[in-house]
Amino acid sequence: MKKMVLLAMALLMSTGAASAATKQKWTAGWDNFGEPLNYTKSTVKWTVSAATKKLTVTFNLVGAVPSKLYQVDLAFFCNTFASTFGQFPVQGLENGNQCQSLTRQGVTASNAYVEVGVVTTDINGNGVFAVAVGPVASGTYSVEFRALDGAGCHFTGGAGDGSDCSVDFQSPGPFGTTTTITIP
Amino acid sequence: MKKTFLLIGALLLLGSVASAAATTLKWTAGWDNFGEPLNYKKSKIKYSVNAAKSTLAVTFSLQGANPNKLYQVGINFFCTSFPVTFGNFPTDGGGGTCPSITRQGVTKSIAAVELGVVATDEHGNGSVKVTVGPIASGTYVLEFQTRDGAGCNLTGGAGNGPDCSDDFQSPGPNFGDSTTITIP
Fold first, then answer.
1. φ and ψ at A130, to 5 degrees?
2. What pTM was estimated for this model as a whole?
3. Crossing angle for the helix pair B2-15 and A2-15, nearest 10 degrees?
């Protein structure tokens, strides 16, 4: 009987998730503060797989504008940054690898950005997008997740680098309040 | 020993996904653009119907497309008339009588539903998973579609211009080649 229980536990563990996820709430801005969102139900969920050095992020918007595209990304707070983060190119670097200084909500900090996807909302203003980034270089990253006011910022095929680059939602926020992600 | 096997079987069943087996389709070149790069061997669409929830889950996967580009994905239904919505997504133009279009020498009446955006990485790879529902019971004859950008019939993207052109279709290879999905 003891063997059966152990076997059952092993099977359940093998079919379960690799590591525990962190779930965060969105806050308004840092550029736009009037975009609708159900802040109680909307979340960002992320997890790191130490074995594969992959960061998996699920961006979930509830009660946003219906039938709208929200590009989602990671804003790193940094002095210098590599040209890629996993399989995605890094945007906003100056003089090669220097992070760009920006002032928002009364705070000045230096950033680099990685655009990872788009949330498309349905008729209720709900949408979700999940992405796996990696392998990511080992290190400790200070980051805010963002949802932009459209799709095409630093991408081909969208609205371009205009007002769609404005930030509607950030997590954790406000500007400069970060979460730390460690890739072992 | 027999009990052990029964227990293992039950646990494996519990750990598996509840929905029906998935169908995988390949992409073919689009009915508008025929030169967009894609690894047609590795790129695919995977879909499954959950009969209990009346939902359709679709994963659009592109490999070897243009790097750092947005590709809007959706469904074209071949129809005479179509409802205002398909599950939680609006029908382009508001539904009603399906308009007739001619592509690749084939004339068909269609209704289109935009479901999401694939954002490619530096290798031209990307994917997006969408769950649609609850969907009205019926038999739907359709082709999956990838557009040449993001924003067609949606807010926040490139608008209703050349980004609406079709880069990839499935099943294809000709406009009007369809697959049938039944929602019980």
1. -120, 140
2. 0.91
3. 20
Q: What is the pLDDT of residues A78-107, one digit of tens each?
A: 999 999 999 999 999 999 999 999 999 999
Which CATH fold would you assign to the domain A20-183?
Answer: Immunoglobulin-like (2.60.40)
CATH (one of 1.10.3290, 2.60.40, 1.20.120, 3.90.190) for B19-183: 2.60.40
Domain map (residue ranges) of chain B: 19-183
Residues from chain B that touch A86, judged by Cβ atoms under 8 A, are 121
Q: What is the ipTM metric for this complex?
A: 0.90
Q: Which residues of A touch B122 (CB under 8 A)?
A: 84, 87-89
Task: Answer positive or negative: Cα dihedral of B95, B98, B100, B106.
Answer: positive
Residues 15-74 of B with CB under 8 A from A: 15-16, 66, 68-71
Is the Cβ of A2 closer than 8 Å to some Cβ of chain B?
no
Contact A117 B12 (CB under 8 A): no
Chain position carrying tokens 């308009």: B99
Contact B85 A123 (CB under 8 A): yes
How is the beta sheet containing B126-132 ordered, strand by strand? B23-26, B44-50, B55-62, B126-132
